[in-house]
Amino acid sequence: MVEAEPIQILQITEIYFSLRKVFDNFTLNLLLHFAMTLKELYTNTTWPSVREELFSLYPDQKKKETGYQKVYEQMPSIGPQKSTTEILFTFIEEKEPEYDSYIHLSGIETNSDSKESHSLELTSWEEWMGMSINETTLNDFSPPNILAHCLLEMTLTGFDPETRKRTEDDMVKRSMEISKGS
Fold first, then answer.
1. Hey, which of 114, 116, 120, 137 would disulfide with 89, CB 3.0 to 4.6 Å?
2. Quick one: pLDDT at residue 2?
3. In a domain, 19, yes or no
4. Among 28-42, 57-71, 118-132, 167-181, whose mean pLDDT is lowest?
């Protein structure tokens, strides 16, 4: 067996890592070229990685960890519904020092010329799973970070379909009452 000189091993190692970086970037760019849905993004995460992001972003939500974990673990069984909405993250930098800057999650319609965004709070989980993720969002945020933000938004009205339905019906009822002036 021929022994390699230390310099050769170093060069081979550098070449390996350079090629790996090229292929990793190529793979990422290839994935970004094709729309990635939330369901597909889910497969690139683990509960511990999402949990870490979720509670570093929203430490006050730690008391609801069981609910978030339950929904996360249900995600593979949620059938994605075809959607024309794309998930978009926008960084909002607050000018006033008493307010924190934050990430605003919203939806934009891909089949419309209008690029106005809208709330996704009342969107079904099936539609969430079928939504594509905006290319800029995929470039700027990690899969666990994206999923942590989406998980929070998906569960604003409850951690199960029954609770969500009750809460959403109450919201609609109150909205109707307000619009009637009651």
1. 137
2. 55
3. no
4. 28-42
Query: What does the alpha-carbon distance between residue 29 and residue 1 come to, in Å, rounded to a whole number?
Result: 40
Domain enclosing residue 73, as ranges: 36-158
Question: Given the structure tokens 């059938």, which residue do they identify?
Answer: 79
Give the whole-angstrom CA distance, residue 105 versus residue 126: 18
Number of domains in the chain: 1
90: left (phi over 0), alpha (psi -120 to 50) or beta: beta
Query: Rounded mean pLDDT of 103-122?
Result: 87
Residue 173 domain flag = no
Q: Residue 175 falls within a domain, yes or no? A: no
